[in-house]
Amino acid sequence: MTKSLVSLFAAIALVNAQGGFVPLIDKKFTWDNIPYKVDTDVGLVRGDQVGYNRCNSSTEGPTSLCQTAIINSLDDFCLWAPPEAGKTVGEIEGEMIAWCSQPGHGTRIFPDGAITGVQFTKTPDYVQVVGFMNQTKINMVAGDPGGEMDPHGADQRGNPIGGILFTNAWTGTYVQANEYHNFMGSNQFCLKACDPTKGHAADYCQHIYDTQGCGFNAPSNAKDGVFESCAGDSQAFPGAGVAVPASSQCSTFASTAIYGAGATTTAAIPGASTISFSTTPRPKPTASSSAQSSGSASGSKSSTAPSASSTSGAMLSKGSVTIAAFLISVFAMFTLL
Ligand SMILES: *[C@@H]1O[C@H](CO)[C@@H](O)[C@H](O)[C@H]1NC(C)=O
Ligand SMILES: *[C@@H]1O[C@H](CO)[C@@H](O)[C@H](O)[C@H]1NC(C)=O
Predict the structure, then answer these.
(1) Quick one: which of 80, 92, 97, 320 has the most CB atoms within 10 Å?
(2) Is residue 54 within 6 Å of ligand 1 at its C-beta?
(3) From residue 12, how far is each of 8, 19, 170, 265, 330 by CA, in Å?
(4) pLDDT by residue (tens digit) across 284-305?
(5) Inter-CA distances, 321 with 139, 181, 213, Å
(6) Atom of ligand 1 nearest to the CA of 58
């Protein structure tokens, strides 16, 4: 037993020394230098990265496995969701892929009616979208309380493995948001990209409260049925209070004006009026890939902010999967030794 343990630790040390493992959070890319796969580690417990990060018109559509997400504005953002239906977020968080509100990013596109209300806010420290969805339309299990995607995870390979995020909302050109968190579950979502040039990106995009959901990690004034783009104050760091920060200068839109084949409007970002955007023109959506939602700016659905308890069920499944994977790997190593 003692000898086996020594061998086990020696084997682990060897893997670490030879592998040159780099945590996802330390992998930094410019927009024109994104690798085919961000995660090239092989033979680790959770397997290989399922998708890719270099995404283009040939990868776009319903079979895309693009794992590079974008958050630019109310009308142009992505979320991570499962590649196929039938598994909960807790079971498949390492394999989540990007689904976006617009074509042009090489991803899947939200189907009509998937997104039913969104508040986009740009604060001094981050940009975020918080909102409501019919999660079954993006391969999530009905009623799944979900979980958190972030560039950390127990093995530091991220969830999804190799998931990276870019935005043009800070400078007008795409920059990577190394620190992000994205909660998906109970028909609610939030995605926050924390500005690496400000002092507290890791604090605002804290990843340790993964069972707490959007109300705790990204308190907002989002309302189901309302699509609005706002300036906002920065919230308290997650864990330091759930007071909803003030939002201001909000513009509201009909969903049909900003999403889908008939979209005509690009939602302005308050506070970004001095930025000149050098984006490539966005392709027009086709009927089969549109993201038109059934909601509208004047909708009268009930307005509850995503609740703090919405993902309370996620920890169990997520924790058990992680512990089970660890036990299996330890068992496997002992069997080999
Ligand atoms: C498009 O992306 C795929 C997947 O990353 C890649 O294999 C292919 O070479 C890319 N095509 C172009 C024209 O860049
Ligand atoms: C959610 O989407 C599913 C699949 O399209 C649909 O059957 C269901 O009625 C939708 N739920 C709501 C509340 O719109």
Answers:
(1) 97
(2) yes
(3) 6, 10, 41, 54, 10
(4) 655 444 444 433 333 333 333 3
(5) 20, 20, 19
(6) 1
Tell me, in angstroms, the distance from the centre of ligand 2 to residue 55's CA: 29
In a domain, 89, yes or no: yes
The answer to whether position 2 is within a domain reads: no
Residue 250 lies in a domain: yes
Tell me the one-letter amino acid at 225.
G
Q: Closest ligand to 32 CA?
A: 1
Ligand in closest contact with the CA of 64: 1
107: left (phi over 0), alpha (psi -120 to 50) or beta: beta
User: Per the domain annotation, does 7 fall within a domain?
Assistant: no
310 pLDDT higher than 60: no
Which residue is closest in CA terms to ligand 2's atom 11?
Answer: 134
Q: How many folded domains does the chain comprise?
A: 1
Q: Rounded to the nearest 5 degrees, what angle is found at the Cα of 308, between the Cα atoms of 303 and 313?
A: 120
Find the 200 Cα to ligand 1 centroid distance in Å: 35
Nearest CA to ligand 1 atom 5: 54
Residue whose Cα lies nearest atom 7 of ligand 2: it is 136
Tell me what pLDDT residue 279 has.
Answer: 54
Q: Greater confidence, 33 or 330? A: 33
| Residues 23-54: tens digit of each pLDDT | 999 999 999 999 999 999 999 999 999 999 99
**Domain that residue 76 falls in:** 18-336
